Amino acid sequence: MELKRKIIEVSPEKNSSNTDAFEESKQIQISSIDENTLIDAKSTKTIKKRKVKQITIKSLLKNSDKAILNDINLFFFDCLETNQNYNSSKNEKKNFFNTNEINEKSSYFLNPPFIAVKNFLLSKKNFEDNSQENSLEQDPVIPLDESSPVPVEAKIAKLFVHCMLTNGTGLATLLNHKDNIENIKAGNQVWVFIVPFTLKGEVVEAKVIENHLGYSICDLVSVIEPSNDRITPKCIYFGKCSGCHLQMLSYKDQLDFKKKCVQAAIRSESSKIFNNNIPVNNTISSPSEFAYRTKLTPHFDIFSWLPRDKTPIGFNYVNRREVLDIEECIIATNPVNEGLKTSRKITKLNIANFKKGSTLLIRETNLSKPSTVQLLDNSETKKGFVLNHKDTVEESVNVFKYLTDSPSDLLSLLEHFGDATKTNIPETISYNFVYQANSFFQNNNSILAKLIHYVRCELFMVNQKRVELGYPKIQNLVDAYCGAGLFAIGCNIDFEKVVGIEISKESINNAISNAERNLIKNCSFIQGDALKIFDKIDAKSPSCEYNLINDQTAVIIDPPRKGSNPDFLKQLVEYGPAAIIYVACGVPAQFRDLDYLIQLEAIQTDGSTGSQISKEKKSAVYKIMTIQPFDLFPQTYHVENVVTLIRIN
Ligand SMILES: C[S@@+](CC[C@H](N)C(=O)[O-])C[C@H]1O[C@@H](n2cnc3c(N)ncnc32)[C@H](O)[C@@H]1O
């Protein structure tokens, strides 16, 4: 069947003085197969016949990233000087952005206040209930305006960078709209460009790669006016590889950036926490800024058109699903880089046998398992690497032996931990962890002593406070989502009983044998969904095995990036431990969960009807004590965040 191609010409921005990105008119190509079916030429996805303009909006929305939309919204809110977060501004939106004032034909998607609000509505509604298709179709306020000009892909534009987003990219607007902020305030048309490796205040050239709803993803072409904060990156692949995002920033600035990311997540996810002005502490640094990663997972693809011996092995190029050949990764430890060399050599020798691409695994390990471990030339390091998914990895984690009466003193020492010039570092115990190469274990060993010590100090201080107020001492610890037992074992000396729960059979077996190998007697581990923990520890449950009195128990939760779930959180509050430590690598999800936890509390305290928790139950009420970011992933935008909650009733 012959495709009839229909090209819709979209006129350039009217009255625009800009000649860069909007210089050419945008062509949106729609190929019509027959009367009832249309193909979006770009995605080649068959879509039942609808109005062409809907397809345009759809293709812009399709890959829009929720985190980027959140960040853009915060930027617009800042420009509009509304110190609001989403939740608190939700009710005011209708008035604030008076929909009656919208001219039906106006370029809705180029009007930042409306993009901000629209993105917010779309992102919340569509990303949360996964009904993007339906809600989009039913949404009566989406303007079906085919004349919305979007930047021309592959064009190079001169941009001004206003701020950094939480994914480490810069948010920019066209340079010749220098008065952009004023434009935004006036509700005028401004399109946003997202450019990696750029800093606030910089003037850059960037190539438009892909258009989304309200923003374009770009490649950085050159920095025309660099920021004073820009430093020379150490890695030869930086700027092309998608693995690192921040090497152009000093380490101190990276730590500041991560604190701001935590603040942004609070603002986006929880009006209750945001409105309470709870301070976020300065990010605790990683002792190793480079050479810290104990695990790498490079990959390769096989293409029929590419000679096998030219197959690149490494990580994706930034903004592309295409592999960049990487011979060395300077954020990985030396043993892991030795492993990378070996793994690349083995793969290249066998490349003819691969029918499709694959992901390699390289993990650092101690040398006490010589049968599987590849020895390094420099055996002084007592480290090696493993390359097979089922190999056993052995890792030592140091924790401080004592918690003194003033753990805050010890806490301040943490800043110098790992600094060879400081001598007053307290005595440490070395715990030995064994786990399978493909299962979860933290990837930056250099910071684990600080992380575990911080958690212990927090629990010590909560305890002190509670004892002062006449509450019983915390004697038990629950480690939910415990993996191979890192927190359970790392914190065990401060508790009488410790119980860990973890869904992975392999990890829980590792946790059990890790307690044994370290001669620890007070730790037990359960395999199963984290939710099951309450049946096992709450005396009220018929299947209770451990009888941990809630008033004498603290719970650590360290779920995967997507966070915990309402069922778990609801039962957590029903159980009502004396303290909760929430460790997270997914900070927005963490504050979403915390907002929910605190919401439960609000429902319970006012005793209103319709609450998820029965009124008769005396449920727990929690207060956030501290918010502490850690830099487990230097040179990248990722941040680990630890929040301490204390029960206040
Ligand atoms: C971020 S890791 C933390 C592991 C451990 N706390 C550590 O630091 O090594 C999250 C862990 O949660 C586990 N997990 C995922 N979903 C779970 C669930 N529904 N119930 C229990 N554990 C789960 C994963 O297998 C993983 O080991």
UniProtKB/TrEMBL annotation:
One Pfam family matching this protein: tRNA_U5-meth_tr
Binding-site residues, S-adenosyl-L-methionine: 442, 481, 502, 558
One example GO MF annotation: tRNA (uracil(54)-C5)-methyltransferase activity, S-adenosyl methionine-dependent
Chain intervals for the UniProt region annotation (Disordered): 1-23
Protein keywords: Methyltransferase, S-adenosyl-L-methionine, Transferase
Biased composition (Basic and acidic residues): 1-12
SUPFAM superfamilies reported in the protein's UniProt record: S-adenosyl-L-methionine-dependent methyltransferases
Oxidoreductase in keyword set: no
UniProt keyword S-adenosyl-L-methionine, yes or no: yes
Protein family membership: Belongs to the class I-like SAM-binding methyltransferase superfamily. RNA M5U methyltransferase family.
Protein's name in the database: TRAM domain-containing protein
Lineage: Eukaryota, Fungi, Fungi incertae sedis, Zoopagomycota, Kickxellomycotina
